[in-house]
Amino acid sequence: MQAIELLLKRTSYNQLVEPAPNGDVLANILQAGCCVPDHGGLTPWRFIVFKAQALVDLGEIYAEAAEQDGADCEKIEKAKNMPLRAPMVIAVIANIDENNKIPASEQLIAAGCAAHSIQMAAVAQGFQGIWRTGVFAYHPHIKQQLKLTAQEQIVGYIYLGTAKGDVPAKSRKNYQNFVQYW
Ligand SMILES: Cc1cc2nc3c(=O)[nH]c(=O)nc-3n(C[C@H](O)[C@H](O)[C@H](O)COP(=O)(O)O)c2cc1C
User: Fold this and answer.
1) How far is the CA of 94 from the centre of ligand 1 (A)?
2) Domains of the chain by range and CATH?
């Protein structure tokens, strides 16, 4: 796939089945996440890869968080199954140093770039994915269970796998509506 095609046809896809990226392909994906613009070279990100039993474990943690929030049985069960919507989930975690001369917003953007590159590196190698957050990206119980430090936050969960069916082409916003030439 040409780089320009990847960018212009970029899309998310949520019907994800086995196989998940593995071996050198997964290594490329994780490496791509480390090749993003990074003001000051702070490397303000890290990744946690979940697959197989780890997805079940993550679901349990989601369910505990939902229970803490007073969710009913149906919602707890739904939370438990969320990470099982793909054969792999990569949590992208930003490590924000508020005291650094590089603004916190720039550090968060760099981690966001890592998340996007992870998704795109998967697509470039024949896989598909979707970036998700939701309440379980911000829940204190999840942060505690995933052992995030006080200055870390979850930027997203990148769900990855093989497309179950055809990936539909998207209609696009016309760039001319968003550009002015000074
Ligand atoms: C920071 C961030 C968080 C997101 N969280 C969710 C989410 O929790 N659930 C969801 O369905 N889509 C979420 N999305 C949007 C999807 O990743 C996706 O971009 C959207 O469905 C539009 O599809 P497209 O990427 O094909 O244009 C999020 C996107 C970003 C950038």
Assistant:
1) 18
2) 12-51+85-165 (3.40.109.10)
